[in-house]
Recover the amino acids of this structure.
């Protein structure tokens, strides 16, 4: 039997510190507990104990771009960031649009053993937006694919999107849309606004996102299907989501840490580390997104962790690839933007980082309450200590973090996956 005793932790940051006993992957006691023989002890020092984080939106680049991230290195970054489960997007090379690839990704994740890596299946063959991929086969494969997305690209054809939504209901899976009307973003480089105009970048209008979100909410409502909206970036999208939820549409949505904190003012440096899809928007968009997350109009935080090679980022803005690392900074950005501002307490952090994403992704053993009898997928957070971001120190192969050199609050001091310590004091546990 493997036994871990977490001594003196504060579940959800509430009340006096308690001890939490974990035996064979399950929480078996909470209270004042004597150290059992042969138990591994984690001295929690009154830190905050949360359910392990779940990331609905990660790019792990394997297969195809193992020079930037692998399932093993991405799993390490995730575990160090406090995650116990991640969903790996389908825009790999080859694309994860069939059972062979998704099962391969699932198995590699289990071999790495640091987080559960749930492959996302592509909605359309080769992400080409022309015909539906074998969604049913992937849903029933060994990987039991639960989320489907062409992320990186939008399922722009309304007929295909409608069919995908209809199938998804029958299969009990969810379609996650990267909402970007491609006709409105041809050549787009930055949020359409003053900043893009000043710098001479082709604008990326808010309407490109909002028109697809509105359309898809209507398609989902009529099909009585569930829809998940990836990386909400505009204030208008938050309004549409609120409207759709009020009229009973089964829609959920995520926001990235970078859209909560960063704005298009960053573009003045011309540094492509700030290039991302959807683009950084204005300060008032970011403010609205923080309020929408606090209110539950936006359900959860997802990283859109997007590793890129130096040559794809350290180049002229227009040829740089969009995307930024997120797994090892997500919690800190949430602490900075949501906890320190009083918008969320630690219960709220558990909701947006763990419980809601687990529900949306249909995971029954993550995002569970910290209670006796529940699986021990747990994250211990030192809420006050600040640290300095250094991209080269991340477990990711790539280093494209927009937070380089920033001091951020909140340190993940331990992560447990089914009762096994995966990280401790910022290192992968032996
Ligand atoms: O910035 C982004 N990077 N947005 C996406 O939708 C795709 C992602 C990637 O794969 O790099
Ligand atoms: Zn996307
Ligand atoms: Zn993405």
């Amino acid at each position: 039997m493997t036994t871990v005793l977490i001594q003196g932790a504060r579940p959800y940051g509430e009340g006096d510190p308690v001890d939490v006993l974990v035996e064979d992957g399950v929480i078996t006691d909470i209270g004042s507990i004597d150290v059992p023989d042969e138990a591994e002890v984690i001295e929690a020092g009154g830190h905050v104990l949360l359910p392990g984080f779940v990331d609905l939106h990660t790019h792990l680049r394997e297969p195809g771009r193992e020079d930037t991230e692998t399932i093993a290195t991405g799993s390490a970054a995730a575990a160090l960031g406090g995650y116990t489960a991640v969903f790996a997007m389908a825009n790999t090379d080859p694309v994860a649009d069939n059972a062979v690839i998704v099962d391969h990704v699932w198995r590699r994740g289990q071999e790495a053993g640091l987080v559960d890596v749930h492959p996302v299946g592509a909605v359309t063959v080769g992400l080409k937006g022309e015909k539906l991929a074998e969604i049913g086969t992937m849903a029933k494969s060994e990987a039991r694919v639960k989320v489907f997305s062409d992320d990186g690209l939008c399922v722009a054809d309304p007929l295909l999107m409608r069919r995908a939504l209809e199938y998804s209901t029958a299969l009990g899976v969810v379609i996650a849309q990267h909402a970007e009307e491609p006709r409105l973003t041809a050549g787009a480089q930055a949020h359409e606004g003053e900043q893009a105009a000043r710098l001479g970048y082709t604008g990326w209008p808010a309407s490109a996102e909002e028109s697809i979100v509105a359309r898809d909410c209507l398609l989902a409502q009529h099909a009585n299907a569930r829809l998940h909206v990836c990386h909400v970036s505009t204030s208008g999208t938050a309004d549409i989501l609120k409207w759709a939820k009020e009229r009973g549409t089964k829609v959920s949505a995520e926001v990235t840490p970078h859209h909560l904190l960063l704005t298009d003012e960053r573009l003045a440096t011309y540094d492509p580390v700030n290039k991302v899809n959807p683009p950084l928007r204005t300060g008032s968009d970011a403010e609205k997104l923080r309020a929408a997350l606090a209110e539950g109009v936006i359900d959860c935080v997802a990283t859109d962790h997007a590793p890129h090679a130096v040559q794809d980022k350290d180049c002229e803005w227009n040829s740089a690839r969009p995307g930024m690392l997120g797994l090892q900074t997500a919690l800190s950005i949430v602490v900075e933007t949501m906890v320190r501002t009083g918008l969320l307490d630690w219960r709220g952090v558990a909701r947006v980082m763990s419980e809601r994403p687990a529900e949306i992704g249909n995971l029954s053993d993550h995002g569970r309450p910290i209670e006796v009898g529940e699986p021990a997928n747990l994250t211990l957070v030192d809420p006050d200590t600040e640290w300095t971001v250094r991209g080269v120190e991340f477990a990711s192969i790539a280093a494209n973090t927009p937070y380089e050199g920033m001091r951020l609050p909140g340190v993940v001091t331990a992560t447990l996956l089914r009762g096994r310590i995966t990280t401790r004091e910022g290192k992968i546990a032996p």
Q: What stands out?
A: Residues 3-48+374-384+407-428 form a domain with the Urease, subunit C; domain 1 fold (CATH 2.30.40.10). The first helix runs from residue 71 to 80.
